[in-house]
Amino acid sequence: MSIPLFGLGTFRLKDQVVIDSVSQALELGYRAVDTAQIYGNEAEVGQAVAASGIARDQLFLTSKIWTENLGADKLIPSLKESLSKLRTEYLDLTLIHWPSPKGAVPVSEFMGALAEAKAQGLTRQIGVSNFTIDLLRQAIDVAGKEAIATNQIELHPYLQNRKLVEFMHSQGIAVTSYMTLGYGKVLTDPVIQKIAGQHNATPAQVTLAWAMQLGYAVIPSSTRRENLAGNLKSQNLTLSAEDMALIASLDSGLRLTNPESLAPAWD
Hints:
With 267 residues, the protein is of the alpha/beta class. The chain contains 10 helices and 8 strands. Strands 1-2-3-4-5-6-7-8 form an 8-stranded parallel sheet. Strand 4 (91-96), helix 4 and strand 5 (123-129) form a beta-alpha-beta unit. Helix 1 runs parallel beside helix 2 (42-52), helix 1 (15-28) crosses helix 9 and helix 7 packs across helix 8 (203-213). The chain is globular, with a radius of gyration of 18 Å. The model has no long low-confidence stretch (mean pLDDT 98).
């Protein structure tokens, strides 16, 4: 089972805003939607998906277990609550959103519970998010590398995370890039803009195409139909080797997501 390379993110989208975003995206042809317990929008995402009338087996739904629910006694009940909100009997992919702060819940405990959730049919695939190489090694020791579908990480032209990506590739773990557009910072980059002009494309399309061409899954979000449609077209854009090399040169190690209470010791 593979993870779609292109999907819709819903981070920071709430209430009617997220309903409209998901509804429009599904109308336009999106079929993968990414949410999380902490986003506080699972019920609204579920409402929009249900209203779309699209058959469940045509969709790929992802959610993430929040740190407060990592204990073996909480993970599966919290996942069942997420399923209820999303109006589905299973998720296609369930991720550990962040490693347990200060290791309060051992990796072995929550990965064991997540594997059990899969065994119970609550999720088709499992994975992690914001995991370092060391944490991935621990997760692999529990679940086996073949069971970990992806590690969802901040990755954009300014933070290309090459050391971590190389390790993931060596283990057969897929890369999911979040914040691929760098909160919009990369869209004003002269290199990205020049490449976009040469391809008659938008900077967002170029950046998303770059990530997908490297084999990374992307989950951009938008509240505007025009941008949702534009992002979708990035799947049809092919960049040259020169384009890819130019974007590779933009890596500066700029990390935009680094919450003090959650962040591990990054690679």
